[in-house]
Write a structure and sequence with these properties.
With 274 residues, this protein is α/β, with parallel strands linked by helices. The protein has a domain at 54-192: OB fold (Dihydrolipoamide Acetyltransferase, E2P) (Beta Barrel). 35% of the residues lie in helices and 23% in strands. The protein has six helices and eight strands; from the N terminus they run H-E-H-E-E-E-E-E-H-E-H-E-H-H. A five-stranded mixed beta barrel has the order 2-4-5-8-6. The model is unreliable at 248-253, 256-260 and 269-274 (pLDDT under 50).
Length: 274
């Protein structure tokens, strides 16, 4: 028992307990993320199934696409401003690399909504932007899904440069272009007049629980393994250190060896005989 009270053993035991606690906390964190994802999935399902409504009725006076509006089906009527059109680079759809074309749509009240008109795959062995289909002139009505502005820590990704950007971030684009943009954008599904068939529609969201549940199980398993290992090695040290687990050395070694060999008699046998 004295061995278990050494500073080295106590330090190792404390580290194992701390490790198990950390693993348990990480498991709880993954479960909380699972709950958040399920809540978002419920909102997404409801918004996708909602009857299309005018975008200004959905976002309200704040004109911000929030979490409650993400993937909400909406309509917008106005005229495209092709002079401020943006190419969004480094996009992938079904393992195809390409570009998304975002064109501002000026609404009747003077506000402007960014419309993602669709995806254009890049050519084979080419990183150049393919020819961009012309936007319809005059009034158009777009039906699609509202999306929140994309966020990123790299300002070079959100601020448009030479007519292109990496992220669709309405506040950054508004500041760079001076347009009164709604904070968010519309992912076009259909349009009147019809959109050019060269555009590929972007896929709907993936609604699943993700890997959070299995990650949580892994962290809980690591915590159990750490505590189980501590219990196992503690029991082994106690067992190995108990008096009953050691046999007397004299018994184990057998009779004391006096230097006699089995093939020899007494050292004095036969001494002095003729």
């Amino acid at each position: 028992m004295r061995k278990l009270l050494t500073l080295r053993w106590l330090t190792a035991a404390a580290m194992i307990v701390v490790l198990a606690i950390i693993c348990f906390v990480l498991g709880e964190w993954q479960l909380s993320r699972l709950g958040e994802r399920r809540e978002r999935n419920d909102v997404t399902r409801s918004n996708l199934a909602a009857t299309p409504a005018p975008v200004l009725d959905i976002v309200g006076p704040d004109k911000v696409v929030g979490e409650a509006h993400d993937w909400r089906t909406a309509t917008a009527t106005g005229t495209y401003d092709v002079s401020r059109q943006l190419v969004i680079r480094y996009r992938n759809v079904s393992d195809r690399r390409g570009f998304e074309i975002v064109t501002p749509l000026r609404l009747a009240d003077g506000s402007v909504l960014l419309v993602d008109r669709g995806f254009l795959p890049r050519g084979n062995n080419s990183s150049e932007v393919p020819p961009i289909p012309a936007a319809p002139t005059g009034e158009v009505t777009v039906t699609g899904r509202l999306r929140r502005s994309e966020r990123g820590g790299d300002t070079k990704g959100v601020v448009p440069v030479d007519g292109s950007a990496r992220l669709i971030n309405a506040p950054a684009i508004a500041e760079a272009t001076g347009q009164p943009l709604i904070d968010g954008y519309l992912l076009a599904d259909s349009q009147q007049p019809a959109a050019d068939p060269a555009f590929r529609r972007l896929p709907p969201p993936e609604i699943d629980s993700g890997p959070h549940f299995f990650y949580a199980l892994q962290w809980f398993l690591f915590a159990l393994l750490a505590l189980g290992g501590l219990v196992y090695f503690t029991r082994r040290d106690v067992r190995d250190g108990s008096p009953e687990s050691r046999e007397p050395e004299a018994v184990a070694a057998g009779p004391a060896d006096r230097g006699l060999r089995p093939d020899r008699g007494h050292p004095d046998s036969g001494a002095g005989l003729d």
